[in-house]
Amino acid sequence: MTSDSAGVVGLVLTSQALRGLGYGVAAVQLGVILRLDGLTSGEVGLMLAAVLVGTLVSSLALARWGDRVGRRRAYAALYGALVCSGTVIALGAPPWLLAVVAMSGALSVEVIESGPFTTLEQVMLASTGRPRRELVRGFGLYNAVAAGAGTAGALLGALPADRRLLGGVLATVGTAGLVLATRLPAGVEVPAVLPGLPRTRMLARSRGPVARLAGLFAVDSLAGGFVVQAYIGYWLSLRYGATTQTIGVTFAALGVLQTASLLAAPVVATRVGLLRTMVFTHLPANLLLAALPFAPGLPGAIVLLMARACLSQMDVPTRQAYVMALVPEEERTAAAAVTNTARYLTRPAGPALAGLILPFGLALPFVIAGVAKTAYDLTLWRIFRSVRLPAEQRSP
């Protein structure tokens, strides 16, 4: 690995750690702050949906113009938006203004997000030129850093809910991210097209497989939208009267388990393959998710969440590596943006619908999510089990 490549990896991992810290605080406190502000369950769901809509819009913009604007410029712009979002939260702005900044694309309702930041970082890591096995390990470490930092963020979020704390952390993370963005080397940008050569259309060679993956990811993301981490924190406080201290410690423990599973995912993928790891670790996690609302009390619910955390995120690094391995290098930005955008095309409907249907049954959001995610896994396996990755076709 060249020194520039090593520098890119270091900067991306540092950036991921900072955001994981901020998003860990947000996952614990955001829903509780909104509830303390007097918002109903439906309004909380709509506010969280606004965050996801912003992620969708910014991801679509990256898919269309990201490489033309420049990856470093787009990266810096996102961190600037995070500074603005944190400032608005800290100042106690009215809900309508909070909804506006929520749509900037810089916020997240989960520690490990799949939005515009991830799109850019996913391509930056793939641009280092490492072999596929090392790339899978890199994505495992990348997501494990987020989970580990999110653990620290969840512990910080265990303090009494305070918008100045949450907003201050997010603004500080955004400022630090701006500094890191200025230190990225030119090598992270897409290779320039030689004069006189036409630009190829987006996803010219891999449109079919990417479109199928995007459709499946959209289904999985819609289901996941019913149970985003910020919503689970809200649900625990509503269903069991859990305090931010309890939620924060629980999310911290979940972060430790997720970190371990993310580091283990590349090892499993090396033995059984990327697709098998994606599907067969996700299926039992879905059953645990559907069982969560039937726990007899808060301790039982926490045990189910911990069991699910051991498996539910193992598909994340393998999914990212799978997409990067499936498409040619010149189409990676578009493929990452399209597949990540697909996850947010339907995701905003999840928390909004969960908030609306919650009065009809506390179990409904979790059962719907578990069933839909199981259908996604089975369909993904059926469609792609016979597809060989280009790297597999070139090597024994």
From TrEMBL:
Parts of the chain that traverse the membrane: 44-62, 74-91, 139-159, 165-188, 209-232, 252-274, 286-307, 352-372
Name this protein carries in UniProt: MFS transporter
GO MF annotation: an example: transmembrane transporter activity
Domain of life of the source: Bacteria
Keywords on record: Membrane, Transmembrane, Transmembrane helix
Keyword Transmembrane: yes
InterPro entries: MFS, MFS_trans_sf
Annotated source species: Nonomuraea turkmeniaca
Pfam family, one: MFS_1
